[in-house]
Specification:
Chain lengths: 214, 214
């Protein structure tokens, strides 16, 4: 059966975004520091049409994380746009332009109903108003034999973690402090629902901690 | 010059002790889960007169952490006993009995003055009321060419981290959630004061993240 897979970059003090997140600054103040390790990877740069960069042990981890994904679930905050009901004219269509990098069906958790969006390159956005389990169920049907990516943000991730629905979690632990912002595990409690550390990949800039149900 | 070295076990969600710490339960509820990785090491068991256990990559990390230490600084909470002024009769003399495992001078941060204690095996406890820098200065004189161990607890560690006085920090990251309790980095801010990740040792039960000033 397809597995729900989740990856996120987290600071040593547990933050996955800086304070004061907004449409103009979706990562929050200092939040970009969580992602610097990825921007210099050959694999990331090639994906984005850039030359150069470094080959590190992170390349294969990142490569693995985007392989065999047939559908994505994400929270409204990750999809972005202004909070509250969708605007009737020129509604927000995501951060990713007319040809988003998913190339498969994406299911967005929201309290506000909306018609699905069909964009270029095989990406669709379906808006699900009846909760994370319903969104996962729809994603499972769309993914077929492949896995499902839980793309975030932190609030959606917490809902799936708390419900014990995450099958695989890759924490990219960045050896910095953010000091404030949004914590991944706030309110999740003390139960990882049988997610165990199954692999550690160490680099100077990031430690990849892979958890899975054994 | 002697270096101030600090090691601590921390959960994936950033806690170094569980909730409801007390004299009877100094690690707080669930806090013992942070230390299970160590109790099964051959080296730890041998130190405590026990046979058996496992040899893992953690053994050398633990061995290194207790080598070349000439003095220790710790907070009042780590030294233990009831909070507030020292009792006049039968005052608290620490958790460690008449022959504590330090075997060198220990400097305890406290707001309450008290005569030094000389115990067996070379361990003394000196109570320092004029702040963490003064305690470190005294420890430096006592340590000579050797290093100084910052033994905790979290509150004392935060004071030294915030002041930028820590030269080496080993985070033993335990792949569990505690959900609540005492966070190591609460209020420390976003500045590691040039402490950088210099070594990662991975095992299934703990990830040792060593930080040092390059």
């Amino acid at each position: 059966m397809s597995r729900l897979r989740f990856k996120i970059s987290m600071s040593l003090d547990g933050f996955v975004a800086g304070p004061s997140q907004s449409v103009d600054d979706p990562l929050g103040i200092g939040g970009m520091r969580l992602h610097e390790w990825v921007f210099n990877l050959v694999s990331w740069r090639a994906q984005h049409g850039l030359e150069g960069g470094e080959v590190t042990a992170s390349d294969s981890v990142v490569g693995e994380s985007v392989t065999n994904i047939g559908a994505t679930v994400m929270g409204r905050n990750m999809f972005g746009g202004h909070p509250g009901p969708w605007r009737a004219t020129e509604p927000w269509t995501g951060w990713w332009g007319s040809n988003p990098p998913f190339h498969h069906p994406v299911f967005v958790l929201t309290r506000y109903a909306r018609e699905p969006l069909e964009l270029e390159g095989g990406t669709s956005f379906t808006f699900v108003t009846d909760g994370p389990e319903a969104a996962l169920e729809q994603a499972r049907r769309a993914a077929g034999e492949q896995d499902i990516s839980l793309a975030g943000g932190a609030n959606a991730a917490r809902q799936y973690l708390t419900a014990g629905l995450v099958d695989e979690m890759e924490i990219n632990l960045v050896p910095i402090l953010l000091g404030s912002g949004e914590r991944l595990f706030d309110g999740v409690g003390d139960d990882l629902h049988r997610l165990e550390l199954v692999r550690t990949v160490a680099t100077p800039n990031v430690t990849h901690l892979k958890f899975a149900r054994r």
